[in-house]
Amino acid sequence: MLSKYRNLEKDTPPLRHSQSNLCACALFCYKLWLLNLIWKFHGLLLMGYSRCAHSELSRLVYETLPVPNVFCFTYIINGYAQNGMGREGVSLLEAMVHKGLMPDEVTSLRVLSGCNHAGLAKEGKLVFNLMKIFYGSCPEL
């Protein structure tokens, strides 16, 4: 077995490090870093606008995201919950599910909080039961 590996090693041409390969690799790493930075910046904007009761601005930032993730939805739902906009939080949860994203415990807790602040007892109970049955996530009370 070891002899086969040695023969394979001899037959494999050496890797060449050219300037174009190194530049392409560096550019790729930079783009990944920049994309990560953009996602963090969008998340901070969403969180900041939501906390400062600027729900329309956080929704505007959300609309510019090419592929929003669970965290983005949760930030906006949390902002809606803090500002007594429970119906908007429930509708955003529905949009999240329609996009194929699975809500987690934090998301469901934020929706329930929004329902509580807006006096939406029926909607809150429905969301709680749906989380338990369909998604297996039940916020700890």
Automatic annotation (TrEMBL):
Pfam families: PPR_2. One of its GO terms (molecular function) is RNA binding. PPR repeats lie at residues 69-103. InterPro entries: PPR_At4g14850-like_plant, PPR_rpt, TPR-like_helical_dom_sf. Keywords: Repeat. The keyword Repeat applies. The keyword Cell division does not apply. GO terms for biological process: RNA modification. PANTHER family: PENTATRICOPEPTIDE REPEAT-CONTAINING PROTEIN, PUTATIVE-RELATED. This is Pentatricopeptide repeat-containing protein. It comes from Gossypium stocksii.
